[in-house]
Structure formats: structure tokens, C-alpha cells
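Summary for the lay section of the report: proteins are chains of building blocks that fold into shapes. Here we show the chain for 3-isopropylmalate dehydrogenase and then a coded description of the shape we predicted for it.
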Amino acid sequence: MTQPYSIAVLPGDGIGPEVVGCALEVLDAAEARYGFRTERSEVAAGANRYLETGELFDAVDARLRDKDAILFGSMGDPRVAPGILERGFILEMRQRFQQAANVRPVRLYPGVPTPIAGLTPERCEMVIVRENTEGAYVGRGSTVHAGTPNAVAMQESLNTRAGIERVVDFSFRLALGRRRRLTLCHKTNILVAAGQLWQEVVEDLASLYPEVEVDYVHVDAMCFHLPLAPERFDVVVTDNLFGDIITDLGAVIQGGLGVATSANLNLDGSAPSMFEAIHGSAPDIAGKGWANPSGAVLSLALMLGHLGEGEAARAVEAATVEVLGGLPALAGAEMGATTAEVGTRIAELVRSGEADASLVPDSLLGTLAALPDSRR
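The coded shape description reads as follows.
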């Protein structure tokens, strides 16, 4: 029998345990239907753990490092000051595990409402690749004369050729397996030094991928083009800060944070990759059954594709899209079903094999064409 995949599960805070519970129910169904196995280790991490013990990423590093993948729920709580969990756990994991590429599919699924008038699914199908370990998120900075009228804050943004090159090369390979168009998003007219380095790397690597058309868009212009002409874009590559911003705009276009998903990829197999919905912990609705678990379940689909279980990944995505299309609302009491009920509906479709595959003719696996093979 094939060795099981070793998965670390971090439910986290707020609605995290609810949506991750749905993803695990769908994973059970996928295992039963497609014959692979997983061994799951649940790891307590997040606000409650921090408040009880003061522990952050250091406490769980060794428990995560040897896994094939990490399924992540959410992290955050108003009882914990901003920056502690984000920097002490999430950014720390990305940097220590060298999860260099944050991959965010931006896809409008059939039947999912969008605030963009007239937008149709065939016009909105792109991937944004965000450099995930450098830029303004390296956490370097200082404050002088804090708390006085003379306070001065300095925040550094670090860009290395090696860091840029690995995500740009990945993005070219990803574009090669899709519609063969790569767009660099930056602010080269103002952030001249960093922008020039990004532009040089793209131009240098473009010679290795002559089949891929290369484009450039300023980040402010991207905020204009992304909602009005998303069909212009196939693979967008950008730095850490700009990527954080435009991917949330992309999530709104595709129907909201509840249906958006992401992969945080280690590109050389030296540590596990992490897969998460991007909606946050939403503590105000935790326990009410109002959270849409689709983002977490689609993260599971990305994880399965990364592990090489392509057929199961396609089935999970198709089942999720079919259930999404039947909901009267995408979240809240008007969703027409509780969080758990939505998860069960998706799991039942996966287990039966009756999900309508025509809803996703180009599966999320289209975004995975250039992903590294499993560590196994």
C-alpha cells in the first residue's frame, strides 16, 4: 500500500476550526473515493496558544518541518496586539520554510456573484504570484523618539536578486503551462532601485522563455485594470507588499474573501508548503455557522494537486463550485446552510463522484502546472 501523506493541520483561531473541519471532511471523502491516505497531525497554534503559553512559531517548527504539507485555518484575535501573530508565526513560517511564492488563483466561478457589472467567468481566470519572504515584510525597522512629537519611524524593504529570480522563474514556468502571458506589477517610476532590479530579472529570464509574452503594469494602474479588464491577465508576478494588496482586490472580483484560496510554496523541496484560505479569523462570526468554508476546501484542492493527487483535486474543486452555485448568498445567515452543512454537501458530491466537471473545464490544477513535485 502507498505510504500515506503526512499532513500538519493548524485550525487556528476564530472560524478557522470550523472551515478546516469542513476541509477535513472533504478530505475523508476524497480518500475514500480515490484511494490515497493521509496521516494528520493537529497542531495547536494561534491566539489561544499564545495567550496561554507565550509560544509562537519556535514552539512548533520541528513538528511541521518533516511534513509533506500544511493545511492552515486562520490566525488572529483582538486580545493579541497586531503584529505579534502575523510576524511571530505566519511571516516566520514563510521565511524559515522558504515558502517563496504565494500563489493566489483569481477565478470567477459559474453562479458566483461578483460586484463587477457584466463580468463573466471566462473573462476572469488568472493567477497572482507574490514574492513571499522579502520586500517590506522582512520586519526590519526602528522607531526613534517613540511617543514624542519627534517620533521617527523607519521601515526597510529588502529585495535580493536571488529572491526575485526564483519567483519570476516559477512564474514564467507557470505561464508556460497556461496562456503564456506574464505581467510584472511594480512601481518602477517611483521605487526606482527595487523596480529596476525586478525589471532586470524579468528581462533576463524572458530570454529563456521566448514563448511567453511579457507585459508590465504599475501597481496603481493594476488596481484600475484588474476589476475592469481581468481578461488581460494570465500570470501576474509582483513583490510582497503589492501582492498583498492586489490579491485582496482580486478576491473581491471573484466573489469575496470566502471563496479565495492560496498556496505558500517552498520551491526546492527543503520544507513543506502551506495551503490556506485568506479570509482571516473573523472572530465576530465564530461559532455561528455563517462562514463559507469554500476557501478552505479549495485550499485543500490546491494541496492535493501539489501532492500529485490530481484527480481528487479536480473532483474537490468541481464539487465546491457546484455547491457554491446553489447558495443564495456566499456567507452569513442568508447563506441558506450552515458552515458544516456546506462542507457536508461538498463531501457528499466528492464521495459520490457526481460533481459536474463541466463547471471547471480548466481546473485549479491549471494553476499548478509548474508547481514542484511533492517532497515524497
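Put simply, here is one thing we learned. The radius of gyration is 20 Å.
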